[in-house]
Structures are given as structure tokens and as C-alpha cells.
Design a protein that fits this description.
With about 150 residues, this protein is of the alpha+beta class. The chain has helices at about 15-20, 25-30, 115-120, 125-150; strands spanning about 1-10, 35-40, 45-50, 55-70, 75-80, 85-100, 105-115. It contains four helices and seven strands.
Amino acid sequence: MKLAGDLIIAAPRQAVFDALRDARLFASCVDGVRDLQEIDASHYRAVMETKVAYIKFRFDVAVEVTKVEPPQTIEAKVEGTPHGIVGRLSATSSTTLTEQDGATRVQYAIEAALTGKLGSLGQPVIRSKAKEMERHFVEKLGAAFAARAVEAPR
């Protein structure tokens, strides 16, 4: 399953890059992520809980940041193991930041695969949940920058 999109954030590219590299801020923008642990600058662990259709899932997630080119590119690999159901979540993501009219354009692409019983839920159901999570992430990230803009002048 592939997801891609872009958004504009009214902030300088370096500030957006730094925010996306801030694991705590990033995790706070993803619904259901908790218990974030930083292993080192490129490896993280967390628990993610979500509900797909009528089934609630809990994953142990490991994230490896595989490529960082400040202030323009971040790539990562995600592996998740669900509790109580056979399957696996694997994903890679690529984010590119470009300056656009005094703001930053964030372009992202995510390639995700679900295996086992998890993958048998059906592509339309999984895609719908992924789009919902994507929308919430974009809203929360935008709100985080709006809050920073309000705090900055003080």
C-alpha cells in the first residue's frame, strides 16, 4: 500500500526539518503512539494502539532513521509486531522538504505492508484507516507549528 502527499507549513525549512527530527514532537502527532524510547539518534521504540474497523490493535514498533540530509531529506524504516494477532507491519517513508514562498513544502511517501491475519482485513479498510491517520498527523503537525508561532513573539 502506498500513500503520498504534501503539505505547506508556514515556517522556515530548517525549523520544519528540526521538528520532524524531534522524535517526541513527531510521535505526539501520530494518534495512538505512547511509551516512546530513544535508543540512539537513529533508533526508536514505541507502542502504538489503533482501531481498524471493529478490531483494536496494539503494536510494538521499532523505527530506524535510515537517511538524513539536513535540511531536505529524512527516510525511515518501521517494523511493527502486533499483540494478540499474527502478522507484521513493515513500512518505509521518505520525506523531502523544499522552500516555497517563505514557507516549507513537505512531500512524503509511505510504502506499507501488512502480513498475516493483520493483512487479511482487506486493503480498502486498511487504506481508509491509513488516510485517517495521515489526516490527523497533518492536522497535529500544523497545530504544533501554529502554537510555536504564537509562542515565539513573547
